[in-house]
Design a protein that fits this description.
The complex is a heterodimer of chains A (541) and B (104). With 541 residues, chain A is α/β, with parallel strands linked by helices. Chain A is 43% helix and 14% strand. Chain B has three helices and five strands, in the order ββαββαβα. The chains are: A alpha/beta (541), B alpha+beta (104). Chains A and B meet through helix 2, helix 3, helix 4 and helix 5 of A and helix 1 and helix 2 of B.
């Protein structure tokens, strides 16, 4: 096949579900064919379906057993459905009325699919692929194809409309390969499995030819090339090599001293959800903890957490950090994080409601318990406490007064306690615009919420992807002002939103004057490397 | 929240708010039905404030998923049978604690 040179001519573009590169044979997987089995009497049909369901349940149980963990939980839903009498019994009744096993089964599953498909949220729609998986497995089994595992050549780029998790698990990915889906979703179960295995995956490619020999799948730019020219292959291989080298190099520079930029020392911190996150291999290379969330304490079984349980959690993190700073954020419930017995219910707009510090000041019973635990932990290390969703300086002062009272009371009780440094999250535009009025010891820019409030875009609404850009000049202007004020007043400013962990945003953040970033432990290496590359004294000059 | 009434034997009812971030989806639905199946009582659930919606069998994962209960909705639970009280209490606890991994 003759192809014009160049990339754009034959590249199909989709959405990234898992980053990585695959170069291999192109394999198109088509849904199961219908028919090919003789229909028996209603009783025979009923027995055939019973046998197929039992066999499918055994196959799935085996897959779950081999895969374990997340994959096993995904498959558990399919097993539960097969064991659901309310679902299965009506199908047998329909068969006895004279309908074939396939038809009765398929239409029952399709009815369930119709219910999911009409749902508004992407998560439920993504569950549809689990049902299609189950439907087709039972039909294959009815057709006696149970043991016919899809044979995929090693390292292949597998292309399908959508791929169910169980089929992904049945394929051999030990020699790499990639997944190109015409439909699919980055939030599907199979995407989750692909990311966990490091298999590149691109979804929503639209329409792609049925036949091709070779394919190049680029999970970074979300493109698929079929029967590429030699030029395309060499461009692709160069990109792949660069990607691999940058990952290896990033890991290699982790243990070096923290990157500098224009002679100024940068500080790279990590965000953690709970103490267990410190077990990540890269966590120890951080300069400290820039954000420890505490909401996990609210989701535990025994109701709102008592002082002792909180103290143990904070104390373990401070001991891990040694002399390094640890910034703990007080409960940031409300908005997209409701908590029974704590957050207000029935708010028409929870994102603009009683959340963060607003809620804590309204619920002193919960807040003072947390402050007691924090004041006790502050004795053990370099603790900083940060309040979320602050709008006006009076809120910070109210929180400070309560904290001082808490420390005094602990002292009166003869319990060792100290008032830690207090700072605020900068995420409400009104606070960012009046930053010089806050008597805080430090500022931490929460770029996710800041961008959401500045652009008036719900960040969980995929339809607003184009508008909810954290690099919008309006957002950057507020980041720049905050960083500049911090520099003038000698108050440290860090940034802990997702953009801190995105190498593409780093140059802009540095240009805005941000010198401290807090990212997830898994992003630490990449961010460190991105700063190094920008720095004249860095690895690549 | 538990309430007891004595119409036609003993019907135990309870209400609980669904706090799970993604609503009543695959994993919570499997957990809920698995727990419900441990009890002999007949257990039915429905989403409150959703008009005249029928009660559905809490032991059917297909029905529970199809209910499409959204985050923050109130789930009503109703049980009849010898262990009805324990069943409602256990299910209320499961939903209220956001379907913890350690629930056995």
């Amino acid at each position: 096949m003759n192809k014009p040179e160049g990339i754009a001519s034959s590249a199909y573009r989709g959405r990234t579900a898992s980053i990585g590169f695959a170069h291999g044979p192109f394999v198109r997987v088509v849904a199961v064919a219908d028919g090919g089995r003789e229909i028996g009497t209603p009783e025979e049909e009923k027995a055939a379906l019973r046998a197929a369901l039992d066999s499918a349940a055994r196959q799935i149980a085996m897959l779950a057993n081999d895969a374990g963990g997340e994959a096993a939980q995904i498959l558990e839903f399919q097993v539960a459905l097969l064991e659901d009498e309310d679902f299965v019994d009506p199908i047998f009744a329909i068969i006895l009325s004279g309908v074939s096993a396939e038809r009765a089964w398929s239409s029952a599953v399709d009815e369930q699919l119709r219910i999911y498909g009409s749902a508004a949220d992407e998560y439920l729609r993504a569950r549809s692929s689990d049902l299609v998986d189950l439907r087709d497995r039972v039909i294959r089994t009815l057709h006696g194809a149970a043991n016919e595992v899809l044979r995929i050549p090693s390292g292949a780029v597998v292309c399908a409309d959508d791929l169910p998790p169980s089929q992904f698990l049945e394929m051999d990915w030990s020699n790499g390969g990639g997944l190109a889906l015409l439909k699919g979703s980055p939030t599907s179960h199979v995407a989750l499995l692909a990311r966990a295995r490091g298999i590149p995956m691109v979804v929503q490619l639209g329409s792609v030819p049925e036949q091709a020999q070779k394919a190049l799948l680029d999970g970074e730019s979300a493109t698929l090339d079929l029967d590429p020219s030699s030029t395309q292959v060499s461009v692709f291989e160069r990109r792949r090599a660069l990607h691999q080298k940058s990952r290896a190099a990033a890991r290699a520079i982790l243990h070096r001293p923290t990157a500098a930029w224009r002679g100024e020392k940068m500080r790279l911190m990590i965000n953690i959800q709970r103490a267990e996150d410190l077990e990540h291999a890269d966590a120890k290379y951080a300069d400290g903890i820039g954000l420890m969330r505490t909401e996990f304490l609210l989701s535990e079984q025994e109701g709102l957490p008592d002082e002792e349980r909180q103290f143990v959690a904070y104390d373990s993190v401070l001991r891990w950090a040694g002399t390094r700073p640890v910034t703990i954020r007080t409960f940031d419930a409300g908005g997209d994080k409701p908590v029974v017995g704590f957050t207000e219910s029935g708010e028409t707009n929870p994102f603009l409601g009683v959340r963060g510090l607003r809620l804590c000041l309204a619920r002193l019973d919960v807040f003072t318990v947390q402050l007691r635990a924090l004041a006790r932990a502050a004795v053990r290390g370099n603790l900083k406490v940060m309040f979320p969703m602050v709008t006006i300086p009076q809120e910070l002062e109210a929180a400070r007064n309560i904290f001082v009272e808490v420390v005094d009371r602990l002292a009166a009780e003869g319990i060792a306690a100290v008032l830690p440094q207090l700072g605020i999250m900068v995420e409400v535009p009104a606070a960012a615009l009046t930053i010089e009025q806050f008597k805080a010891s430090f500022f931490s820019i929460g770029s996710n919420d800041l961008a959401q409030y500045v652009t008036a875009c719900d960040r969980t609404n995929g339809a607003l992807d184009q508008l909810s850009d954290p690099l919008h000049p309006g957002v950057l202007e507020l980041i720049r002002r905050t960083a500049e004020y911090g520099r003038r007043a000698g108050i440290s400013v860090s940034l802990c939103g997702e953009m801190a962990g995105d190498p593409r945003c780093i140059p802009t953040l540095l240009a805005c004057g941000v010198r401290e970033l807090s990212v997830s432990p898994s992003a630490l290496a990449q961010v460190k490397q991105a700063i190094n590359e920008l720095s004249p004294g860095g690895v690549r000059g | 929240m538990l309430e007891t009434s004595t119409v036609n034997g003993k019907i135990i009812t309870g209400n609980v708010q669904l706090v799970h971030a993604a609503g009543m989806h695959a994993r919570p639905a499997v957990k809920l039905t698995k727990l419900a199946k441990k009890f002999q009582a007949q257990i039915a659930i429905r989403v409150s404030d959703a008009g005249a919606i029928d009660w559905i069998n809490a032991k059917s994962v297909a029905k529970v998923m199809a209910m499409r209960a959204a985050r923050d909705s109130i789930i009503e639970i109703r049980a009849i049978g010898v262990d009805a009280e324990a069943a409602v209490a256990a299910l209320v606890n499961l939903v209220a604690t956001d379907f913890p991994e350690t629930q056995q």
